[in-house]
Specification:
Blueprint: H1 12-17, H2 21-42, H3 46-68, H4 92-117
Helix pairs in contact: 2-3, 3-4
């Protein structure tokens, strides 16, 4: 299907990057590492907590990534019930969307926990 020049936006190339699961996961890992490194260097674990917000953003982008795809893949339902009330198999594309959504949810939860409680790591006394 050809896209009309009226339907194209000058930022489409940037937005298309957001559909890549690998790019988003790489971003989340980089933010976690950067937060830990800055926290250790500055002996202040608030840095790690702040980077947790960026990890959360990565998870939300991954959850939203199906909407960046130019497709008719449903993002809400992976299995439908036909008129005979027998379940239908989902397509590979639908299973991929479900997998990416699940991964995004896990990353969002992890980022939110880090965001809320990451600074407390500095208060743990591992050497007694």
């Amino acid at each position: 299907m050809n896209t009309s020049k009226h339907d194209m936006h000058r930022l489409d190339r940037i937005v298309k990057i957001l559909e890549s699961k690998a790019v988003i996961i790489f971003f989340a890992i980089c933010m976690a590492v950067a937060g830990v490194v800055l926290s250790i260097v500055h002996s202040e674990w608030l840095w790690f907590s702040r980077f947790g917000s960026l990890i959360t953003i990565a998870g939300l982008l991954l959850i939203s990534s199906p909407s960046f795809l130019a497709s008719d893949t449903p993002t809400v339902s992976l299995v439908d019930i036909d008129g005979s009330y027998e379940s239908e198999n989902s397509s590979n594309k639908q299973r991929k969307v479900g997998s990416e959504t699940f991964t995004g949810i896990i990353i969002s939860i992890t980022g939110t926990v880090v965001w809320g409680f990451g600074d407390l790591i500095g208060q743990i006394n591992l050497i007694t």
